[in-house]
UniProtKB/TrEMBL annotation:
Species: Aurantimonas aggregata
Assigned protein family: Belongs to the ABC transporter superfamily.
Biological processes annotated in GO: quaternary ammonium group transport
UniProt-recorded name of the protein: ATP-binding cassette domain-containing protein
A Pfam family of this chain: TOBE_2
Keyword Transport among record annotations: yes
Any Gene Ontology CC annotation: ATP-binding cassette (ABC) transporter complex
Nucleotide-binding recorded as keyword: yes
Record-level Gene Ontology MF annotations: ATP binding; ATP hydrolysis activity; transmembrane transporter activity
PANTHER family xref list: SPERMIDINE/PUTRESCINE IMPORT ATP-BINDING PROTEIN POTA, SPERMIDINE_PUTRESCINE IMPORT ATP-BINDING PROTEIN POTA
ABC transporter domain sequence ranges: 15-246
Keyword set, alphabetical order: ATP-binding, Nucleotide-binding, Transport
Amino acid sequence: MSPADASAERHGAAVAIRGLTKTFKSTIALHPIELSIPKGEILVLLGPSGCGKTTLLRLIAGLEIPDGPDMVRFDDEDVSAVPIERRNVGLVFQSYALFPNMSVAENVGYGLKVRGMPGQARQAETLRLMQLVGIAELADRRISQISGGQRQRVALARALAIKPRILLLDEPLAALDAVLREYLRVEIGALLRRFGITAVYVTHDQAEAMAIGDRIAVMQAGRIAQIDTPQEIYRRPANAFVANFIGTMNRIEAPVANGVMTAGSGETRLSLALGGPDRAATVWFRPEAIRLSHGDGAISARVVATTFFGATQRLVAALDPGHRLQVDLPADRPFMPGERVAFDLDASDILEFPNQA
Ligand SMILES: Nc1ncnc2c1ncn2[C@@H]1O[C@H](COP(=O)(O)OP(=O)(O)OP(=O)(O)O)[C@@H](O)[C@H]1O
């Protein structure tokens, strides 16, 4: 059991998934999945297309039935065969699924009406929810008269209205433009935390995952490749797949002899003290881990190009034709293509995943 899972057990798991598999005819969409989601956690499912994110979310929702019994538990109750309408889950999708012929307030209050909440109490609760997500002034508008970002807030308020045990969000911001996405992901994260709600959030956007998740489960081909906090996943990816998928990584493949990895030759070369036996090794390091040094460094390379990002710049430098490095540096130093630069790296910033390339 991982430390995160142990913590989930201690604080009471809202959702416990044990040996969960899902097979569609001949496609194994999920291999046995183990997962505990503590109460109040926002868990992000992140991964490339087809890795099983949506299938896992739908199984938690009750929109799909798992291969066997006792694979999905809510608050220690087996819900594997319980249909969605009896699970008390809230759903928010990319496509909003709002009622176009109803007003914003009617959409938000819909679930409360269906549950038989009397008119006055319902109106008060609807107003409270609309205020919370910042759409109270739009109460009487039709859905067709509000923007995409406002629609997503209506969808969120409607899902929260029924006080779900767990809120499930599937790419809720995918239809919005980049600026609005960036704004709303921070807002939604803050809002969910204020509610203290347990949430599972599917995205293939790593920046969104980092911004929203208490933990991120990185999925690969129907399995969870790593589950941990955004910081841990970024700093200590569990394997080459996660390293490749999260953020930008430099990857150097070269032989190690007498504990030193060497690549390139002459004026542009790399020489990293890795220790260990002689081997063909692959090492990984982040662009921001590389420091510019004076004179000779562990890495000497030639500048190929620079991209200006405002506060920082990303420099592409070549060791040899097969090895290019990306380096993030403050923007105040100008570099010329063809210029030779020397870099250093801390040993603790160099990652190696033995037994996998
Ligand atoms: N109803 C279905 N019938 C058959 N195969 C399915 C069905 N639903 C999903 N699959 C398969 O299961 C695998 C996982 O699909 P899933 O939709 O969960 O992936 P995803 O990670 O959500 O992808 P995306 O980001 O593209 O939505 C895929 O190989 C997919 O083709």
